[in-house]
Every structure is written in C-alpha cells, then in structure tokens.
Design brief:
The complex is a heterodimer of chains A (about 425) and B (about 180).
Chain A lengths: L1 H15 L9 H10 L14 H33 L4 H11 L2 H4 L5 H27 L5 H12 L5 H28 L19 H15 L5 E17 L5 E7 L5 E12 L4 E30 L5 E30 L2 E12 L7 E13 L4 E12 L3 E2 L5 E17 L1
Antiparallel strand pairs in A: 1-3, 1-10, 2-4, 3-4, 4-5, 5-6, 6-7, 7-8, 8-10, 9-10
Helix pairs in contact in A: 3-8, 6-7, 6-8, 7-8, 8-9
Chain B lengths: L5 H9 L3 H22 L3 H18 L9 H18 L21 H6 L2 H9 L3 H12 L4 H8 L3 H21 L6
The chains are: A alpha+beta (about 425), B mainly alpha (about 180).
Chain lengths: ~425, ~180
C-alpha cells in the first residue's frame, strides 16, 4: 500500500505540478469588465426611497426654518423703527426731545447745554442732508424742501424752532436709514411720508446712526464658531436578504475593512440660551468587504462517491462584495450645552455619493462633545458619536440589503468668535 | 509598450494600464486555470473561480511587495479563492463508509503512464470536495497537514484521514477503469 501511495503521489505531482490548461477566451472579457475602474459620474440623487426623500426634505425644511428665523429677526428690527404712528414711541420721543409739557418745567443747565449741542449738530446734518438729498435722493426731496421751509419760517420762539429742527433732522436721517435698509433688505419698507414727519420718533442723530450701524450688522449673522475635524469611523452592517424562489443568502460576514475616514468643515450658530445649531460639509471615504453564501436550490451538485453511493450538495457558493464608498455629506445637528465646554449633539447626515455605485445615505446621529480651550480664540474638541443609517443600501447583484451603523470619534479644532 | 518582465507587468498593472493587465493575464492564464481545474469538480466551476481569482489579483496587486514573487503570489491567491469557494460547502465524508481494501503494491506503472492528464484529472475531480482539497493541497501543491488544517479549518487528523480517503478512492476508481493493483 505504501508503494501505491508513494507512486500515485509522485505520478500526480509530476504530472500536475505545472499543469496548464487554457481557459475560454471569453473569460478575459468578463474579467476586464469587472476590473475596469468605475467611471466617475456627476452627483446623482435617486428619489425612489421614502426614507431618503424624508431625509432630504427634512434638511430642506431645517434650512428654511433657519433662513426664516434670521430673516424675520432682521425684518422685526427694521420695522420697529419704521412705524411712525406708534404712540408709545412718539410719547417717549416727546419726552426726550422736549415737548410742550417740558416748557412748564424749568430746564436745568445740563439739559440746556445738551439741547444746544444737539441743535448745533442737527443744523449741520440738516444742511448736509438738504444738499445731499437734492443731489442723490429724489425721494427725499420733499423732506429737504420741508426742512428748508421750516428754516425759512419766522421763528415765533427759539424753543419751537428747535423742536421743529430736531424733528426734521430726525425724520430725514431716519428716512435715509430706512432707505439703506430697503437697499440691503431688498424689501419694500414703509417709508415715512413727508406729511407725517412730525409724528416720527425724534431720535438724536447720533443714536440713529448707531442704530443704522447695528441694523446692518444684524443682517449678516456671524457664526460663533468655525471648525474643522477629522473622523475615523468603524462601520457595522445589518443585513436583510432579499427573498427569492430559489435563492437563499446567508452567513454574512464583514469583519474586514470596517474603518473609514471623514473630514469636515462647518459652522456653529446660536439658537437659544443653551442651544446651538451646527452644520457642516464633509467628505467621507471607506471600503467595505462583505462575504456571504448563496444557496441556489435550482442548482445541485451530485458527487459519485462509489458505485453504491452519491453525495448531493446544494448549489451553494461563497461570494464576496467589495465597495468603495466616497460621500459628500451634509451634517446638521443641534448642540445642547450640558455644562461649560460640554454638549450633546443630536442631528442627521445626508450623504451624496460621488459616483452612482451607491445610493444616498441618510443617517441619524448622536454624540457628546468635549471641548478644551487651547489659546485665546481656539479650542480643541473630541466627540464620540454613533450614527445609524435610516436608508438601506442594495448589494450589487440585489441579493440583499443592508444598513450601516457607524461608531466615530470626531477630532476637531474650532476658531471661536 | 512591451512588458518583458514581471516587474514591468507589475508596474503597468499598478498604473491600471489595461495592456499590462491583459499581458499579465495571458502570461499566466494557462498555469492558473490549470490549478482551478484541479480544485474544482467541473470546468464551469473552474471558470467561475478563475475569474474571481484574477479580479482579486488585480484588485490586490498593491499588496505585493516584490515583482519576484508575482507568480507565487498569484498562485497563492488562486488557491485561496479555490478554498474559499468550497470552504462553506465542504463535507468531509466519514471514511468508515468506504469499504476497506486490501493493501496493494504498485505494479501498474505502465498502465498509469499511458493515461493522459485529462483522465487522471477527472479522477481527482470526482473526489468529494474535502478529499479533493486535501489531495491537491498535500500531494500537488506541497502544503503540510498542519498548514492544510489551518487553511481549511479542520484538525490535522482530519487532513490526514482525508488524504488517506482520497487515495483509497483513487485506487478504487483506477481498479474500476481496469487498472490492476495487486
């Protein structure tokens, strides 16, 4: 027997050690097609999944809310000063500028001095406005005419003249300010008509100038924080085999190639006392390698063991699927400040692939951010986070679907306001 | 561009040069399809495995450190793909089911020598999956039982018994086709 064993081994070894057999020529075409690099295509968004649609709609909605919030905030500021008939304001203004009620009260030396300074300044501004408005702002022509008339009118008392002058200056300056708001805001603002100028709030010119400046500052809402971060992420998958009449997919394994990396740039805006809105754009890349078995009932292998017995094997085969994931992701979440430099983040990410191989990825995420100041306006932070996929991905051959759960550690640096 | 050496082939393939990929394939296709044929039951299965193996080769070439090892590395990839293909479905037939045969001496050199490769190959192809794997790995590819046990996820004892079983079946098949082993 030993002799037989040795000889059969030698015979087979010598014959098959360098055994060659030519494959079918068509095989190369198949291999070539499979190894051809993926063609980069423009961003493609498929709208065929309810989950994805909801995700995208939610991001748009949040964007609209944010836009509306800032827009309304700005409008309120502009309208507050553009309502001339507001009795409260008029009353307050009268108290400030010295109305008839003030005549009964003896003015102190300080009040008189302030009034005189205001009047001097007011005259200068009124003259300047009268010239400028004639040349530049035709809409304010009536105003300047009124101011001129007011100046030409014989003065009954010095006090009354002063009042009128202040009112004219205030009205003209305010109209100019509103005009600026109109230009910046792009909206029709209720400009004060010339007939109603006396009812307008008569703010001191300096205060008005400051208000104009403040208002234009409010139009561009600066973020409280600009950040960049990198995120190593471990991805795990939950599989759902697609059912077929003859096919059974099982024994999923994805133990290799779990690690992916993302890089993000974003901003943080204040929402409320303890709430901030964080939004950022990131690039994420990873690979996946999923092994699985496919059992095909329609194919069976029959092995003849000897003359009396055969072995029937189900037509099963081990398969694997590898993918390159490259996403541009939009992340939006709300930060709730637990205590100083620590916050919980809850939000979502919508990832759009840079090729059409993979479908868009919608993920919900939660994290805990720990920050540490490192310089005057700089802070380092890290944030462990978990993201759960709300949308599912299909395998290349549509044999199964899977969802991703990611465990990431965000490492970031922020420039603080 | 001509690819005369494995180094040039490797460089070209790493650049994803389609001509280099085609040249590499055509240079080694016969040798490695031969390996696939040994490990599989049919030509169709061999073709499937062969395609998967070459896709894997081209996808993972960057892991190869030296062009000197190109052929050996591809061989290892092909063998591994063959093993993976059958790994989940391998059934190790209980050797107690095979009737014990009397010891025999090798006296049929001339008869075996007259058999062509395809005839001998078909005998191996007909072996059960487990026995065929172990026979190929041990007898032809030169792996030890310890290594085979690790590769197939079985014990060393199972590897040895499967080899014994494979040779027994081969002997029986040879007798069936008229080769006399005394």
């Amino acid at each position: 027997m030993e002799n037989f064993d040795d000889n059969i081994e030698n015979e087979y070894r010598s014959r098959f050690e360098d055994f060659e057999e030519m494959p079918d020529d068509l095989l190369w075409n198949n291999i070539e097609a499979r190894i051809a690099p993926e063609k980069e295509r423009p961003l493609v968004i498929w709208w065929n999944s309810l989950g994805r649609t909801i995700g995208i709609a939610a991001s748009l909605l949040i964007g609209l809310f944010i836009g509306a919030y800032f827009l309304l905030k700005t409008d309120n500021g502009a309208q507050l000063s553009s309502i001339p008939d507001n009795p409260k304001i008029v009353k307050q203004q009268k108290l400030v500028s010295g109305s008839k009620a003030d005549e009964n009260k003896p003015a102190t030396a300080e009040q008189s001095l302030n009034k005189q300074l205001t009047l001097d300044k007011g005259k200068e501004i009124a003259n300047k406005l009268a010239i400028d408005n004639k040349a530049k702002v035709p809409g304010l022509l009536g105003m300047s005419t009124f101011a001129q008339k007011s100046f030409k009118k014989p003065l009954e008392t010095q006090e009354k003249n002063n009042e009128v002058l202040i009112a004219a200056v205030s009205e003209a300056t305010r109209s100019l300010a509103l005009n600026e708001v109109y230009v910046l805001n792009g909206k029709q603002t209720n400009l004060v008509s010339a007939e109603k100028h006396l009812k307008a709030p008569e703010l001191v010119a300096r205060e008005i100038a400051m208000e104009v400046e403040e208002r234009s500052r409010r139009l561009i809402m600066p973020p409280t924080e600009i950040f960049v971060n990198v995120t190593p992420t471990l991805s795990y998958y939950m599989f759902s085999p697609n059912k077929g009449d003859h096919l059974f997919v099982s024994d999923f394994s994805n133990s290799s190639q779990r690690l992916g990396f993302g890089a993000q740039l974003g901003f943080i805006y204040p929402l409320a006392r303890k709430f901030d809105l964080r939004t950022g754009l990131s690039y994420f890349t990873r690979k996946s390698n999923i092994n699985f078995d496919v059992t095909d009932d329609s194919k069976k292998n029959v092995v003849v063991i000897d003359n009396n017995s055969i072995q029937i094997n189900p037509g099963s085969s081990a398969m694997s699927e590898s993918k390159n994931w490259q996403y541009i992701e939009l992340q939006s979440d709300v930060l709730y400040s637990i205590k100083h430099m620590q916050a919980v983040s809850v939000g979502f990410k919508v990832g759009m692939q840079t090729s059409s191989m993979n479908s868009p990825l919608v993920q919900a995420r939660i994290g805990y951010r720990l920050s540490r100041p490192v310089a005057d306006r700089w802070a380092l932070w890290l944030e462990p986070a978990v993201s759960i996929s709300l949308s599912s991905q299909n395998s290349v051959e549509n044999l199964f679907m899977y969802r991703t759960t990611g465990f990431g550690l965000n490492l970031g640096v922020s420039l603080l306001k | 561009m001509q690819f005369n050496t494995d180094s040039e082939l490797l460089d070209g393939c790493l650049r994803r040069d389609s001509k280099a990929q085609a040249a590499l394939y055509h240079k080694y296709k016969g040798r490695f399809f031969g390996i696939c044929r040994r490990y599989t039951q049919s030509k169709e299965e061999a073709e499937d495995i062969f395609q998967d193996a070459f896709v894997k080769v081209f996808s993972n070439l960057k892991e190869l450190r030296s062009a000197d090892q190109l052929s050996a590395w591809i061989r290892r990839v092909v063998v591994n793909v063959c093993i993976d293909y059958y790994h989940k479905r391998i059934t190790f037939v209980d050797i107690a089911e095979v009737p014990e045969m009397a010891p025999a001496d090798w006296q049929s050199d001339s008869v075996i020598a007259r058999m062509n490769n395809q005839e001998l190959l078909s005998l191996v192809n007909e072996l059960p999956d487990g026995a065929r794997m172990v026979f190929n790995l041990f007898v032809i590819d030169g792996y030890g039982h310890q290594e085979i046990a690790r590769m197939l996820g079985i014990s060393e004892g199972t590897s040895k018994s499967q080899l014994f079983f494979a040779k027994k079946l081969l002997k029986k098949k040879l007798q069936t086709i008229g080769v006399t082993i005394d």
